[in-house]
Predict the 3D structure of the following.
Amino acid sequence: MARFFAEESAVCGSIIHLSPEDGAHIRSLRLRPAELFTVCDSKGTDYICSLGEKNGCTVASIIEKRASAGEPLIRCTVYIAFSKGERLDYAVQKSVELGAYEIVLFPSKRCIALPDDTHKKLRRLQRIVLETAKQSGRGLVPAVFALKSFEEAIEQASGAELPLFFYECENKQTLKDALEKASAGYAGADGKVATVAIITGPEGGFEPAEAKSAANAGMMTVTLGPRILRCETAPAAALSAIMFYFDEL
């Protein structure tokens, strides 16, 4: 079933006003009046719709309203160090597919490449996020932000209930260890934390000083195992393991 996103304000009674872009997309799909499609209000509500028309414009006629099934209860913010070329695109895309609530980009000392125009990069990534959210049945479109420094990323991420810093030189605390501590310690009554921060590094990994800074800020330094993962693989591996552990996958 085709899926589209609309602002909550576009929902008016029994119809949803579609954007010109979505109207054109629907026409290109050649949907028949009897065919159903989904419009999500980006707040976790899905509307099952059929084609309609009002004042000469294509609209979605609401048939059924229900909660989006594609949103996890845990809000995982994925902090990804800037990486080169398509690696960042891949990491962002897979994070959205796996249920990331939002994505935050940041620079670190071993980043090979930083974007010349951050705003242009964010616009491009937000388009990737939108298309991925449609494809994967998400109930919201995760936002993509960029921070100016590694220190900002650590300060922001450390405020999560479960702040995880993935460091390739860590050899003691595994992700499973950290998740079990969270479930047994400061998690809610259902054994789940509400917010998780995941920080992964660039192609060259993190500097020891950066790892120390993260630990000093209260982040839990963890390893993803004995194999070194590529920078675009690490966020997806970490997020999928967390979602699986908390029965969100």
User: Anything to note?
Assistant: The CA atoms of residues 109 and 209 lie 10 Å apart.
